[in-house]
Amino acid sequence: MSFDDHRVVITAAGRDFGRTLAIRLADLGAEVFLSARTLAAAERTRDEIRERGHPRVHAFACDLTDPASIRDFAAEVGRRTDRIDVLVNNGSRYLEGPDLLSAADADIVDTLASGATGTVLTVKSFLPLLLASDKPDVVTMISACGTAGHHRSDAHDAFYAAKSAQAGFAEILSRRLRPQGVRVISLYPPDFDNPDPLSAEWDTTPRGAQDALTSQSLVDCILFAVAQPRDCFIKAFHFEQV
Q1: Using an 8 Å Cβ cutoff, are 88 and 8 in contact?
Q2: What is the DSSP pairing of strand 7-10 with strand 57-61?
Q3: What is the DSSP string of 48-88?
Q4: What SUPFAM superfamilies does its record include (predicted)?
Q5: What domains, with CATH codes, occur in the chain?
Q6: Tens digits of per-residue pLDDT, 8-33?
Q7: Which residue, among 83, 92, 86, 85, has the nearest Cα to 62 in the 3D structure?
Q8: What is the pTM of this model?
Q9: Residues forming a β-bridge with 193
């Protein structure tokens, strides 16, 4: 599928999976509006994409723990386009440590704010631009940690809480936005391999039944869901954990 007519916003695209997704969507022709907590990080990804011959990419700073920063991000995007077709909620701080007492209060607050509050406010800020599209999709990278009963991660309890909040938000959002034609698509991956999409590893990373989930497969899931006819609402992708 060509994404030449898609305008996509991706949060936390300065590194890791957000960067991967931004590069792949730009390669497929999408116009990409990417953010990172610092402008320098967003610009690094932007420049990598432009070096691949894709000029339609824009970089912004957005701190998902700061409501004003989120509003400013959406406003800046709105000055450059009259619609957004896909919003990817990728930003969420990871916090490690299975002992509740192991994390400082400030780190717990930051984890919950970026993953839970940040996701809600990002959708709220971009909703007018999404409603201006004839093919609006909200994609949220949640985590297996947002699945009821999951316990196999060494993530901190606060990360579990943030991901559970994202899952609850996505569930009600899907029901309430469907009458307006907005699809809400959630992914619940366990830990996965994320080879650099600009390296040889991208094509050589094993993807067999006994191997860990890869970012290539996660990108494929997102592309598949977004490419479906508008009567097809794929709410969630859940994955077996190796």
Answers
A1: yes
A2: unpaired
A3: HHHHTT---EEEEE--TT-HHHHHHHHHHHHTT-S--SEEE
A4: NAD(P)-binding Rossmann-fold domains
A5: 7-238 (3.40.50.720)
A6: 999 999 999 999 999 999 999 999 99
A7: 92
A8: 0.97
A9: 214
